[in-house]
Amino acid sequence: EVTEQLRSYISAISLMYRKPNGFHNFEHACHVTMSVTKLLSRIVAPSQMAHVGEDGVGERTLHDHTYGITSDPLTHFSLVFSALIHDVDHTGVPNATLIEENAALAQAYSNKSVAEQNSIDLAWGLLQQEQFASLRECIYASKSEHEHFRQLVVQAVLATDIVDKELKGLRNGRWEKAFSEEANPESPKDAINRKATIVIEHLIQASDVAHTMQHW
Question: pTM (2 decimals)?
Answer without folding.
Answer: 0.84
